[in-house]
Amino acid sequence: MMENKQDKIKRGLLESASLKKRVAEENADTILRIAEEVTRTLKEGGKIIIFGNGGSAADAQHIAAELMGRYLMDREPLPAISLTVNTSSLTAIANDYSYSDVFLRQLKGIARKGDLVWGISTSGNSENVVKALKWAREKGIKTVGFTGEGGGRMKEYCDLIFEVPSKSTPRIQELHITAGHIICEIVEEELFR
Q1: Inter-axis angle of helices 28-43 and 169-192, to 10 degrees?
Q2: In whole angstroms, what is the distance from residue 117 CA to residue 75 CA?
Q3: Which of 24, 153, 173, 177 fits a 20 to 30 Å CA distance from 1?
Q4: In what order do the strands lie in the sheet with 116-120?
Q5: Structural domain that includes position 79
Q6: What confidence score (pLDDT) does residue 153 get?
Q7: Any idea what the CATH number is for the domain that residue 91 is in?
Q8: pLDDT tens sequence across 10-47
Q9: Helix (H, G, I), strand (E, B) or coil at 161
Q10: How far is residue 147 from each of residues 42, 70, 161, measured CA to CA in Å?
């Protein structure tokens, strides 16, 4: 029997709520450690560099915008950039080198020791995200990852990793942006209150 639309809506909302409850119980300490690392990086003059593909690209842009603009309070801008916003760089690098190099090539141009490199991949296996995190790790740049259950290949290259305990891409993405918002709130409070 086919699920009716009302039941589909309820199921989606309840799945998301249940997963958020589980993450609150099991992963709050990881989210806090990431917020503390973002805060430390910014206090010490570093910048936050975020990237991902598809929905994760949208999350990277969203989080960078919250830091650069404002989240909940009027304050000075914080140095944060998403590597997904410059379509000229993305398409030139993909065309002239490889799509697997689109984040790595940009990182090589702007990332420095003292920055924080933050990769987002629901599977943890996006080649371009993994390559960028690996390079940053080799250069001694702090790395953070947002991913799904298991962490995928990127887990090996992340100093801190938030793994959503799910294989469902939509549910993972919902938790990524929720955690990103919480991190922005903590960072603002630490730096401006």
Answers
A1: 50
A2: 23
A3: 173
A4: 80-82, 48-52, 116-120, 142-147, 160-163
A5: 5-192
A6: 98
A7: 3.40.50.10490
A8: 999 999 999 999 999 999 999 999 999 999 999 999 99
A9: strand
A10: 23, 25, 7
Which whole number is the average pLDDT over 53-57? 98
Provide the residue count of the chain: 193
Instruction: Locate the DSSP E strands across 46-148.
Output: 48-52, 80-82, 116-120, 142-147
Q: Sort residue 23 into left (φ over 0), alpha (ψ -120 to 50) or beta.
A: alpha
pLDDT band at 2 (very low <50, low <70, confident <90, very high): confident
61: CB partners within 8 A, 6+ apart: 50, 82, 84, 85
Residues 132-155: pLDDT tens digits? 999 999 999 999 999 999 999 999
pTM of the entire predicted model: 0.96
Return d(Cα 144, Cα 160) in angstroms, integer.
5
Q: What is the pLDDT of residues 81-137, one digit of tens each?
A: 999 999 999 999 999 999 999 999 999 999 999 999 999 999 999 999 999 999 999
Number of domains in the chain: 1
Ramachandran bin of 111, using left for φ above 0, alpha for ψ from -120 to 50, beta for the remaining angles: beta
What ranges make up the beta strands (E) of the chain? 48-52, 80-82, 116-120, 142-147, 160-163
Q: Report the 10 Å Cβ neighbour count for 108.
A: 13
CA pair distance 164, 146, nearest whole angstrom? 8
Please name the residue that has the structure tokens 């909302």.
13
